[in-house]
Design goal:
This protein has about 230 residues and is an alpha/beta fold. The protein is about 35% helix and about 15% strand. The chain is built from nine helices and eight strands. Strands 2-1-3-4-7-8 form a six-stranded parallel sheet, with helices on both faces. The model has no long low-confidence stretch (mean pLDDT about 95). This is AB hydrolase-1 domain-containing protein.
């Protein structure tokens, strides 16, 4: 529908654009016709923010940026474009200037921190046999297995990349906390949400992959942001 803004979905570490599958189908069902999902290289925050910004620049009209996990850092860095009218964080990092996802994680380590394994090429993986319990404990074993096998590992150095100018300081925001998150400590999510003073914070009894386990409430929050953006 012409009166609805475009939605750009940004994935995080250990996944790709397809992690948004259930949210995409739900948004489409609700009448959102302009849907986009970035496939980021996960090579550096600068690379990922630029890839996301390129997609946003191709879109005419208002855009709501939605980031899951590390995707929150990406939309924080890329979200200052003039046609971005709202930022939605789904169990996501929202660093301030000079902060990195790694720094935030080290301050309050998540439960599954020890289940990350670097390889000899500098990429950081979630151990396959620990993926279900770490990333998606509220999904079926089959769904988690597919995620584990198809995971997209980031360069470990990306964890240490700092945000320069956080877009959440100047754009309207919405935040979803996953109370049972084992990849980002829930208290870190609550702290990041509180300091950005979002229009709404929603806390779900969900693991890290809330975009897949609870697509309905996640889509509700995105729709609220889109409605506010449409004015």
């Amino acid at each position: 529908m012409a009166d609805k803004p475009s939605i750009v979905l940004v994935h995080g570490f250990w996944g790709g654009a397809a992690h948004w599958a259930k949210v995409i189908t739900e948004l489409h069902r609700r009448g959102f016709g302009s849907l986009h999902a970035v496939e980021n290289p996960l090579t550096s925050l600068a690379d990922d923010a630029e890839r996301t910004a390129k997609m946003v620049r191709q879109i005419d009209g208002p855009v709501v940026l939605v980031g899951h996990s590390y995707g929150g850092a990406v939309i924080t860095e890329a979200g200052d474009l003039p046609n971005v009218t709202g930022l939605v964080y789904i169990a996501a990092f929202a660093p301030d200037a000079g902060e990195s996802p790694g720094q935030i994680s080290q301050e309050k380590p998540p439960a599954a921190f020890e289940n990350l394994a670097p390889d000899s090429d500098g990429y950081l993986w979630v151990k396959q046999d620990k993926f279900h319990e770490s990333f998606a404990q509220d999904l079926s074993e089959e769904e988690a297995l597919v995620m584990a096998v198809t995971q997209k590992a980031p360069l470990a150095s990306t964890f240490g990349d700092n945000v320069t100018a956080p877009a959440w300081r100047s754009k309207p925001t919405w935040y979803q906390v996953s109370a049972a998150d084992r990849m980002i400590h829930p208290d870190n999510e609550r702290r990041m949400a509180t300091r950005m003073q979002p229009r709404r914070t929603v806390e779900l009894d969900a693991g890290h992959a809330s975009l897949a386990s609870q697509p309905g409430p996640v889509t509700d929050l995105i729709e609220e942001a889109a409605t506010a953006s449409a004015g």
